Amino acid sequence: MHPDMHIFSWLKYKMTEIYSFGNLPVIAHAWNKDRTQIAVSLGKNDVRIYHKIAGKWKLIHTLCEHLSRVLAIDWAPKTNQIVSASADYNAYVWTLENDVWKPQMVELQRTSRAVCCAKWSPQENKFVIGSSDKNVAICYYEKDQRFWAAEMIKKKPKSTVTCIAWHPNNQLIAVGSCDYRCRIYSAFIKIVDDQAQTSNWGTIKNTNELLYEFQSESGWIHDVAFSPLGDNLAWVSHNSIIFAVSAKNPSQIKMEITNYLPFRCVIFINESMLIVGGHEFSPLIYNYDQDKGTIEFVEKLDRQEVSTGRSSIGRRFDQPAMQTQTPEPISTHQSMITQIVPYQNENGKLVKISSADLFGQIVIWNLNDKKEIVIEAGQELRGDVDETLTLELRSGKAEIFGTELAIGQKYQFTSGMKFSIFTYWGCTVNIISSHDDYYVARDENPMHIYLNVHGMLEQLRQKAESEKTRGPRIMVAGLPDVGKSTLCRMLVNWAARLGRTPILVDLDVGQNQVSIPGTIASMVIRRPASVEEGFRIEMPLVFHYGYKTPGENIGLYNEIVSSMAMYVNIRSENVEKSLISGIVVNTCGYIRQEGYESFKHVAKAFDVDIIIVLDSEWLATKLISDLPSVKVITLPKSGGVVPKDAAKDKFRENKIREYFYGPKNNICPHVFTIEFNEIKMYKIGAPQIPDSCLPAGMILKNPYNKILPVAPSAALVHHVLSVSSSNDPEQLLAKNLLGFVVVQHVDSDKRTLTLLAPQPNIKNKLLIVSDVLFVDLK
Fold it and tell me: What does pLDDT average to over the chain?
């Protein structure tokens, strides 16, 4: 897409709104009063104004009067006037008349170099500009002469003026320049101002008077800002230093030397909190305590993590990483922040800011979403994330599905994710979210019961350890959507926290925790699952099924369960630590008719000792009757468990996407073409044929596991294909999988398939066709 095309991409991320303007840098931007319009400079000689209509941005005006790059824009919200400054030595004031923006040049007769900055006063009756030839001009409108006049500061800076800030009293300005100094001047104009105002910075006596001059040691100044009441002043320099000074004691300048890259902009949130941004890509919050004389780092608005680059990684099935690239930041901004401006105030409080960068993005940050929540002992904070939610444990102890939270660490939950924070001791958490998509559940919850089950299992493990016998084998069963997967996750997490290495077997082909939909899988749990990303997948054992529910081919399902049980039993018997730690088997919610028989088959195949039944007295009674040698325990489901039929398809899609792109979209899969004759494709399970359609006396033997060759065709597009470890088609059911690919295109003329894969090739050319689909929209 050409960068000049006026098409915007928009998304929600980390309580932000991101507007993309292509690849051109956003040099300056400004909002109108109701924030339905934005004026931007994209490094050219024009100002572009866009209007938000029905959620979409449309270019409505292009202000073309400057001859060189526009360096500064400011939009007066009350008078609806725009001032623009350019490298062509000029500044213009734009007024909207009959839906046409009309320019009027500002008389800057003494300016012979680029005008670098321009800013309206709080009362919007004047503005100030700064230029490369050291000039600072206070501009006002001469009503009698009908032109914009400029009154120059006499004791001007000694180098380029880079930034300007207005004091709230409308009569003081702060000026930063490349001579390493920040100055406060009087901006009182007799023609405009009724009378001189007083402030904590001193009494204004003369026009253009220099009140203070602050030395910054070294580094040219990039931006300067007054606090909302005007009692504090802060500025940032190119040597990554933040300076602050208070009107109470202007002789004491506080300097905070940081380890970050140089800052380009600064803005106060309130009298003590300020935000800086620049080459670090992420806005940073600092607290200035004028009484203590300290500037302390608080947090980043955007967590900036380090990835291994957009490298292709065979994440799941013991495939080696292709290569390691230079680490890159994962942040909302992907380039230097050029400007931070206020976006929205409520009751005199700044609640939103906007920042621009060199990659054409403008990001709106919500500063008013953080809430502190106290969770009492035995209570649970439950959430169903609508957009994005950030959580931080501030004090106490808490866990999410058996994984302990670390104090001070921020956890990010994206759209569609659910979480449940439980505390046995009480805790305090901070939540940042633009929606109230969470609540503290004060009802009775079964967490203590679940923990008691864990305690019982640990006692059995200790007994097995002392007697050198087998540890407990547990199967969790129940109706759909009762929390089976969550309970299994908690049980293995609690065990891993004690140093155990249980084997988790997930037989849920629709919502598998270990692999993608359409498979069954198992793996050894050596560490608790990540709060945000789930289990770290290390050498899992995965078998192909190809459908989303067991009922679609119950015979095939039972056969691959038997294959899985054989391998798991061998692993368990040959590794003493796994033998003692035991097995936790998660099942599907398919319990009627054939499904119940399948439950019994699972219990016998894995030789389970204990069956935990969630919220189903009928199922527990049947299992007690039919499996007398197995201990059956009935447990209540959590009150936070809700039906999720509508979310299942989204979960499945996200699980497949995570396989190819990583849990945080931080890896990049490969798309490559392969010829028909290089691969062989099969489908397991023949269509069920009614007996009435068969010849008299004929019995179709085992159609459920019949292996049928599949010819490449357009019907395969978007289908997930499993890469088998077998070289013999007859062994497909008995062999595990190496990974997955997705068919993106079939070219019958060239006899080629285009595949999406985690690696640039596939190790084994024997593929199994699945009924599971994935449409890659990236």
Answer: 86
From 649, 681, 698, give the residue that closes a domain: 649
Q: Which pTM does this prediction carry?
A: 0.63
Strands of the sheet with 115-120, listed across from one edge: 115-120, 126-131, 136-142, 147-152
418: annotated binding-site residue?
yes
Lowest mean pLDDT among 197-206, 576-585, 605-614: 197-206
Q: Based on DSSP, count helices (H) and strands (E) in the chain, helices before strands.
A: 7, 56
CATH of the domain at 500: 3.40.50.300
| Residue 113 lies inside a defined structural domain of this protein | no
**725 annotated to bind ligand:** no
Nearest to 70 by CA among 276, 355, 353, 338: 338
What contacts 671, CB < 8 A, 6 or more positions away? 744, 754, 755, 756, 757
Instruction: Let me know whether 494 and 630 are in one domain.
Output: yes
Is the backbone of residue 472 left (phi > 0), alpha (psi -120 to 50) or beta?
A: beta
Number of domains into which the chain is organized = 4
| Residue 262 resides in a domain | yes
CB atoms within 10 A of CB 597: 12
Is residue 56 exposed (0-12), middle (13-18) or buried (19+ Cβ within 10 Å)?
exposed
Q: 437 labelled as ligand-binding?
A: no
485 is in an annotated binding site: yes
Q: Is 380 annotated as a binding residue?
A: yes
Indicate the residue among 649, 682, 699 that finishes a domain.
649
Answer yes or no: is 482 a known binding residue. Answer: yes
- 483 annotated ligand binder: yes
For residue 387, give its domain range: 371-441
pLDDT in tens, 10-46: 233 335 678 887 788 999 999 999 889 999 999 899 9
Same domain, 641 and 493: yes
Residue pair 157/179 in contact by the 8 Å Cβ criterion = yes
Residue 572, marked binder: no
- Residues 272 and 234 placed together within one structural domain of the fold: yes
